From TrEMBL:
<dbReference type="InterPro" id="IPR025110">
    <property type="entry name" value="AMP-bd_C"/>
</dbReference>
<feature type="domain" description="AMP-dependent synthetase/ligase">
    <location>
        <begin position="5"/>
        <end position="335"/>
    </location>
</feature>
<dbReference type="Pfam" id="PF00501">
    <property type="entry name" value="AMP-binding"/>
</dbReference>
<dbReference type="Pfam" id="PF13193">
    <property type="entry name" value="AMP-binding_C"/>
</dbReference>
<dbReference type="InterPro" id="IPR045851">
    <property type="entry name" value="AMP-bd_C_sf"/>
</dbReference>
<comment type="similarity">
    <text>Belongs to the ATP-dependent AMP-binding enzyme family.</text>
</comment>
<dbReference type="InterPro" id="IPR000873">
    <property type="entry name" value="AMP-dep_synth/lig_dom"/>
</dbReference>
<protein>
    <submittedName>
        <fullName>Malonyl-CoA/methylmalonyl-CoA synthetase</fullName>
    </submittedName>
</protein>
<dbReference type="InterPro" id="IPR042099">
    <property type="entry name" value="ANL_N_sf"/>
</dbReference>
<feature type="domain" description="AMP-binding enzyme C-terminal">
    <location>
        <begin position="386"/>
        <end position="460"/>
    </location>
</feature>
<dbReference type="GO" id="GO:0031956">
    <property type="term" value="F:medium-chain fatty acid-CoA ligase activity"/>
</dbReference>
<dbReference type="GO" id="GO:0006631">
    <property type="term" value="P:fatty acid metabolic process"/>
</dbReference>
<dbReference type="InterPro" id="IPR020845">
    <property type="entry name" value="AMP-binding_CS"/>
</dbReference>
Amino acid sequence: MFALQSDRVALRFGDRALTHAELAGCAGALAQRLSGLPRVAVWATPTIETCVAVVAALLAGVPAVPLNPKVGERELAHIVADSAPALVLAAPGVELPPGLASVPRLDVTPDGTSDAAFADPGDEAPALIVYTSGTTGSPKGVVLPRRSIVSTLDAVAEAWEWTSDDVLVHALPLFHVHGLILGVLGPLRRGGTLHHLGRFSTAQVVEALDGDGTMMFGVPTMYHRIAEEVGSAPALAAALGKARLLVSGSAALPVRDHERIAAATGQRVVERYGMTETLMNTSVRADGDRRPGAVGVPLPGVEVRLVDDAGATLDEAGAIGEIQVRGPNLFTEYLNRPDATAEAFADGWFRTGDVGTRDEDGYFRIVGRKATDIIKSGGYKIGAGEIENTLLEHPSVKEVAVTGEPDDDLGERIVAWVVPSGPEPAAGELADHVARLLTPHKRPRVVRFVESLPRNDMGKVMKRALGT
């Protein structure tokens, strides 16, 4: 799965670094201690130790369960009971919560050497078990086989022209697909370098990209902070302009932020589309048209289709339907949930629950989640994302989320949750702004001003928490 023989730096966290050869040695030594275990948990702090632990588990053929260090008591209890890890791997000195008291702890140290050979467990062997956010119930353990990780990393490498010469810069958490699989295993598979910033700041981005950084991964909240500063920060604009590739994922990047970054840097951000169960599905290619709001074309080996409410395939450009995916990038099952696994598929296609559309030239655009981002109002199906991007064009709007709520007359009425950029504008002014730029039936019927929007660790707005 990895090329771990060179003396090139593989991992850099602050002033700590490991070469590929050093990583192979210490991870190999740890893998010998893990060999034969059913599965292990990893307390996934943003450290070198987390990376060593995951690589060791992969070498040993032992499924690893990354744990969010901010996980709540109830969620942790569910994950521990569901996955039954034999050990929890953690960095020395890190305090673990009482919910892990029943699981033996093994401290991970980035030292030791081993040249032991490990048997290849096979393409379908479970590699990682990543728990979903649990927005509609207890989190489900998504079993990702080695096949899905390898196919995704090789597909995005082709699309992004990713090589061993690249130095990836990011500050993403390491318990999620974006930060761990793309952001750690991606550089290791290519034989390149990960430079993890620890905590995101634009000052650190400047330093890293002014150094040897060639690529940056981020989420929209990070790029929003960049967009807010870059117009008046020449050093930041210059550093971003030097990067070979800027990639945003985990949620849609607002068009306004796209344009502000492009205007200041001459660099357009690449968006891609994936999820825990599928890893990566589509992306704008490095040599492709980096158009705002588009997540590109299907990656090599991945099939993507749109279907209507009856399950019929929608072939015409511009049609809106549920996105379904099939290919080697898919997960195997939800751990201990055969019912949920069966329900997630339709004739071999994974039902993402996301709604999208396809341009004439095959570029996909994400409209939103079927459950929270499609509003049925007055006989129309309305995408929340389009209204959000339009409201963000208003100078008085800093952040916004659009939802639907029951309405006796309309079925659902459109509600805009607005974080103002200054004094609160009149609600009617915002509604008129949308009606003028889109159509009257897409205007928000209710505007609620809030100090901030609830977000998860990946920066996604948790719309179900609005109004509760």
